[in-house]
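Amino acid chain
________________
===
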Amino acid sequence: MQSDLFVLDDLKLLMGKQEEWCVSIFMPTHRVTPRALENQIRFKNLVREAEEKLMEVGAADADRILEPARKLVEDKPFWHHQSDGLAFFLAKDINRSYRLPIAFDELVVVTDRFHTKPVLPLLTGDGRFYILALSQNEVRLFLCARFSVSEVGLKGVPPSLDEALKYDQPEKSLQFHAHSPAGSGQQGATFHGHGAGADDTKDRILRFCNEVDKGLESILPRERAPLIVAAVDYLVPIFRQASAYPRILEQAISGNPEGLSGEELHQKALEIVTPYFEQDLLDHEAMYGELSNRGKTASHVEEVVRAAYYGRVEVLFVPVGKYQWGEFDPSTDKVTLARQSEQGAGDLLDFAAAQTILNSGIVHAVNPGEMPDHADAAAILRY
């Protein structure tokens, strides 16, 4: 399976998979077609590295596990349509590739679980956000990171107002209720269609926004990343009231977005979202400091891993580019530190981060020198 989107259900699938051997491959990729051959060569080398790792641990079925990857090496059309990074997950009965807007470092991990930490920024909301470019004639959705933007396919989302309401019967008086704006405490607007005039126009726009939101709910289930609306001024409050999405930012990109590319929208959105992310991290760092003497934080890997597994972690800090190999056995509640080369050893920081997200927590990936308490992992606990 190939996808341009990594959502919570993908993480649940991968984290729920435990085989004798799971292969996780990450690499940066070039979007520009003339450099597609470089993508192929890089991936081929990483597949060879995965084979060597499987041979080292005595995996008898290495050829069967790697067969989908070897086929992908020869899939020339695939390599001509890339994003900034590729994540590939392989086991006996699973192979999934994701073309994603993250320039991954090259990495091959072979353990009894999939390694997911490099893709977790796509689920944490830390540096990741969406742009909804909305007009009556066009709807586009973009998944963004700080340095990249990628358009998301909108299956199930009406491409325009006319398409959304093409089966409309204007002679009927229809009533539609909007959601209250998330976190506003205000009553959402209610418009009634009367077949003509300004009220009817508002009614049609609201129903269009309802249909767009309904489609987004199926594409972005249980998402936490901020969403910035790009639209003319009158559309923004109508969509905000119609939508159940939990984190629509108050500030929008004002104006008709139809003539703007994804890159142009991304630049405008960064001005809005960068202070948001910076403040979010600062708030959590201050919270960690305040709670550190009250028994509401953890800064030892073993304690953090157990707390994350049992859903006790509200906010987790993990260092970028750092690994702590080992094993966690839920049946005995025991965490064992190890070297990567030891059989069964996985990255415990990866495990803790994934468990935090699965339990609706927040993960911040920071530079090692910026870690609270200079720890290998640090957490704010719910209890």
User: Anything to note?
Assistant: Residues 262-291 form the longest helix (30 residues).
